[in-house]
Design a protein that fits this description.
5 helices, mainly alpha, globular, 68% helix
Length: 113
């Protein structure tokens, strides 16, 4: 990687803009949606790939870098070797910071477009 390359600028121009473009389609999906068939998984994965990255970055900016790292460490320690639900993720972030993560993030992950 080149030292003068601004990775955050790449993220905005390549990942976030692609998430917004995909989200503009009528067939877009919320970031959190139950799927049951291989076809649904395949269709859903395109949306989630970009949208999830943008949402994680947005969460980091909302809570701050240090708080984000602290919450992520707690999350990984607490749920090591197990799966975790979205609500459990928001709960861990709310343990670490004084902001209402559930109401902020659910409005983004549960809505299409």
């Amino acid at each position: 990687m080149q030292p003068d390359l601004d990775a955050s600028l790449y993220f905005v121009t390549e990942i976030t803009l692609e998430a917004l473009r995909i989200d503009g389609f009528k067939a877009s999906h919320p970031a959190e949606e139950p799927v049951t068939t291989p076809l649904e998984i395949e269709e859903y994965s395109v949306t989630v790939r970009y949208k999830a990255a943008a949402l994680i970055r947005m969460l980091e900016n909302y809570v701050g870098n240090e708080t984000f790292r602290e919450a992520l460490k707690l999350l990984l320690d607490k749920y090591q070797f197990s799966s975790v639900s979205t609500e459990e993720i928001w709960g861990v972030f709310e343990e670490v910071c004084s902001k209402s993560i559930r109401s902020f993030m659910n409005s983004w992950v549960q809505q299409r477009g």
